[in-house]
Specification:
Blueprint: E1 4-12, H1 16-24, H2 26-32, E2 37-39, E3 47-51, E4 59-66, E5 70-75, E6 88-97, E7 100-110, H3 115-137, H4 150-153
Antiparallel strand pairs: 1-7, 2-3, 3-4, 4-5, 5-6, 6-7
Length: 156
């Protein structure tokens, strides 16, 4: 059976440098990623992790760090009931298009079982919409926004 993948593309009125900063700066991620703060030095091979005071959060290692064009990292299950699905990969492609940036997020190498896939299918669109709102208006999506499965949402 082939592994599942999830791809999401949006266009954000910003610069590649500001978008890169938003993806890699813990102070910034905490504001749009519903309280999840990222920590890493973003060197290839280095670990990264998200932290949240009340929810499990993903972690992994940096695979590609090419500012401000491409970022990729592994995604380790953030709850015990998802660990059997294995380690997946997240890739962010940033393509300047005049005064906007085309952002493509691909989460692939998703294991069998599909719980991670179902969670990120709701989680990534909410996170990216909040990121877009934050960069374009200065305000993230409301923090009370929840997916149909809060447990999976916490992992994306």
């Amino acid at each position: 059976m082939s592994k599942l993948e999830f791809v999401y593309t949006t266009y954000i009125e910003t610069t590649p440098e500001k978008l890169w900063h938003a993806l890699t700066d813990g102070d910034f991620t905490e504001r749009y990623w519903f309280g999840h703060r990222v920590i890493s030095d973003w060197k290839v091979g280095s670990p990264y992790r998200f932290t949240h005071p009340e929810r499990p959060s993903p972690k992994g290692k940096v695979l590609i760090s090419d500012p401000p064009r491409k970022l990729a990292y592994t995604w380790e299950a953030c709850s015990d009931d998802l660990k059997h699905e294995g380690i997946s990969r997240v890739t962010f492609d940033l393509e300047p298009r005049g005064n906007i940036v085309k952002l493509t997020v691909m989460h692939d190498k998703l294991g069998e079982g599909g719980k991670t896939y179902l969670g990120i299918s709701e989680g990534w669109p909410m996170v990216i919409a909040s990121l877009k709102s934050m960069l374009e208006t200065g305000r993230p999506l409301p923090s009370g926004l929840k997916s149909s499965s809060q447990k999976e949402q916490a992992c994306a």
